[in-house]
Structures are given as structure tokens and as C-alpha cells.
């Protein structure tokens, strides 16, 4: 055991104890954060516009500060981009996290001196909780890879600007940097396939112990390693023991990732976003993510069915219920006020406050009034796949609205590693599972308004090729699981077997 590994354990125990105590004071911590945020921003332009001086309670805040998406907060962002101070938060941001939005184009999310610890320390704490529980600190001796965007930053309004993962790369502690792969030059490569080739070259002969990234891009990395060596990833890297993943639902990728590794490794799930690090798996042996209740973010929750209402019901942490689907609203020390991040979550526990990510508020199908969400399509497919030994690489779903003869239906695009032997029986199982999950969809099928869903068997690498064709291969880009229009579906028809 080296010095780094030895020192990690007592620090890990300290952090875990601190987090455990925080579980007991989550509601109180949220109240204190709320008061602190409002007080700190009273003299900002946003605070002045919304009467922060008169806000005495959460009820006052709800009356005076409406829920916003990026388009609605964009006028304030534009002022910051012009170089102005004290707009959303005191001073100026130290970074803009640049992210692509489906409706807003490029979004510029401010990161401030006060908010950067939320991103950095939470990622650290997730690993330290793992060390404390597992006793495994040996991985700190080996090489670690974080599949991320380029750390090269532009300047917008004098503010360094780039992908969140690239920004975070600049804050990797010195004691970890010597263990970090790939090197800076490789991380700066923009073209994903070229970057991936270089990552493989750099890591293939190293003693990799931790691998982190978004599951679909980790799978591409694993596939390339296997192609090059003919070995399972776990055999190629015998010291590989920890996988850190987040950004998408892990379940559809889980089986294939572990098959590529060839053995079990411990897995830690995280929930980072450009707007803030929302939650992390504090116990790698248990499902669910611990809400980050004491890290500069005051959370609000809107019932998912009201997400697009002009004046939705808004709940603080004290009022949430287990099993309800909520849109996540954040208020942060980066100056994001009543900001809808676009995700939906469900609480699986209130003691402590643990969540699962259930989908995106804008990723749904309701062309026929059914309002099917990501959680439901993922459940329907993966249940059928697991029961039938079918392996899924990637998929998405869209409505098909028939204009002439025949009934409308949900059209699925699935890339199988191993397709079902009886496709018709498989389709029926997926359809039955979805009907069991969504009563409105069930009614439409039972009422003969919709036909049973249809599945297109996609050719190999079809989704990779599609993402490449639209310039969104690699990095933090993710394919929506479902859409309420045909924009993606019509393009994907070019990739059907």
C-alpha cells in the first residue's frame, strides 16, 4: 500500500461521516441555503428585478420568481456575455459551461467561484464514500481515465468557456493528475473517433484501475480495446476495479458493459449536470442517488404533469413524496434561479433523500395523449430483453401518425447485439410491458386507436453513424430515448437493416 492509498482511507471515513450527518439535517440545510442564496443575490440585477429585498419566505420566493427554462433566463446570460457584472450572481462567473440544447442551440451556463466546489468536491466525495465502504483504496495507485470533452477553453465576454467535463479537467487535484489518462493533448482532440484511437494507444499497455464516462462512450472504448487485443477489458486490465458512470440511465448498457469487461467490477453512479452536481451514489451496494442537499443548491420540485404549466405547483424538499415523478428545479450560487434543468426524478427514499433519474421533461411521446416517458420505454424494453436473453446496444422511439389508411403506432429503432429469435413474440412482450406501465397507452391499444408498436432492426453502428452525421459523436452528447416528433426517426430510417 503506497502513501496515497494509505492516506485516502482516513480522509474517506471523515467525508463519509460528514455526509451521513448531513442526511439527518437535509431539510434544515436546504432552508439555510435558500436564505443564504437570496441574501447574497439581493444586490444583483436579477435580485433587484424580482424584489429579493422583500422575500421573507419560500412562499414569497414562489410568488416573485417564476420557473424558467434557458430561453427565459437567456436575456440575463446575454448581459454576462457582454462582460457585465452582478447580473445573476455577485461579480462575474469564472467559467461558462457550454452545452448544446435541442431548442436553444448552444447554452452558456455560468459557473462561479462559489459554485465550482459543488462540481469538484461532489465528484471527489462519491469516490471517497466508495473507499470508506469498500475498503478499496488500491485503485488510487494505478491509472485512471475520465472520458471527457476537450479542456481547451474559449473566451466569451472575457469568461473562459468550454464543456463542463473539460472545465473540471483543470481542477483535477495535483496528487491525482500524475495518474490521469489520457494526456492533455489527446483530451484536446475534438474529433471523437480520432480521440478514441489515441486514448486506446495511451491506455492499452497501462495498469488501468478506474474508468469513468458516459456509458455509450465507455462501451465504444471497450469495443475498440477488444478489437485491438482480442481480450476482455478485465483481462487486459487485471487491476481494473472501479467504474464510474453517469449522464444516462445505466440499465440499457449495463449487461453489455459487464460482458465486455468479463467480470464484475464495482460501479458508482453519479448525476452531474452543467447547472450543478445533483446527486451521487453514496453507497455502491445500494441503488439510488443521494440528493446533494448541502452544496450550494436549493432544490424545488414540480409534479411532472405540471412541468409545462404557466404556474405549476412548486414543492421544497420537505414536501416531496416517494414514487412521484418530479421535474427538477434548481436555485444555485451560480445564479440559476428557479431554473428547470429539464430532468425528471423520483424519490425512492426520504430518509435519506435518495432519487432515481426517470427521464427528460421534453423527451416523451404524447402524440395521441398517452404521455409515455423515458423510464417507461426503458422498463418495457429491458424487461423483455432480460427475460429473453436479448442484448440491446442502443434504441429510440417516436410516434408514427398515419395520414391515410391504417392506424398510428409507436415506432421503435433498436440496434441489437443479438436480435430475438422470434421478433413478433418479442414485440408483443415489449408492448405488453409498456401497456402495464402506462394506462393511457393501454387505453389507446385496447380502444383500437393505436396499433401495437413496431420495431425496426437497425444495422451495426447505426446510432454511432447517425450521431457522427449530425456532428454529435462523443463527449457528453446523448441520443434521446424518445421524441414526440419524427425529426430523429426519419433520419434513422436510412440505417435500418
Give an overview of the whole structure.
With 497 residues, the chain is an alpha/beta fold. The chain folds into two domains: 1-361, 3-Layer(aba) Sandwich (Rossmann fold), CATH 3.40.50; 364-495, GMP Synthetase, Chain A, domain 3 (2-Layer Sandwich), CATH 3.30.300. Helices cover 38% and strands 24% of the residues. The chain contains 18 helices and 20 strands. It has helices at residues 3-24, 26-40, 45-49, 58-64, 70-81, 116-134, 164-169, 174-177, 184-187, 192-203, 215-229, 233-236, 251-261, 374-388, 423-437, 439-446, 462-469, 487-492; strands spanning 95-101, 105-111, 143-146, 154-156, 159-162, 180-181, 208-213, 242-246, 266-273, 276-280, 289-291, 297-303, 325-332, 339-350, 353-360, 364-365, 372-373, 391-400, 409-418, 454-457. The chain has an eleven-stranded mixed beta sheet with strand order 6-3-7-8-9-10-11-15-14-13-12, sandwiched between helices. A four-stranded mixed beta sheet has the order 2-1-5-4. A hairpin with an 8-residue loop joins β18 (391-400) and β19. α10 crosses α11 and α11 runs parallel beside α13. The longest helix has 22 residues, at 3-24. It is globular. The chain starts with a helix and ends in a 5-residue tail after the last helix.
Topology:
Blueprint: H1 3-24, H2 26-40, H3 45-49, H4 58-64, H5 70-81, E1 95-101, E2 105-111, H6 116-134, E3 143-146, E4 154-156, E5 159-162, H7 164-169, H8 174-177, E6 180-181, H9 184-187, H10 192-203, E7 208-213, H11 215-229, H12 233-236, E8 242-246, H13 251-261, E9 266-273, E10 276-280, E11 289-291, E12 297-303, E13 325-332, E14 339-350, E15 353-360, E16 364-365, E17 372-373, H14 374-388, E18 391-400, E19 409-418, H15 423-437, H16 439-446, E20 454-457, H17 462-469, H18 487-492
Parallel strand pairs: 1-5, 3-6, 3-7, 7-8, 8-9, 19-20
Antiparallel strand pairs: 1-2, 4-5, 9-10, 10-11, 11-15, 12-13, 13-14, 14-15, 16-17, 18-19
Helix pairs in contact: 1-6, 10-11, 11-13, 14-15, 15-16
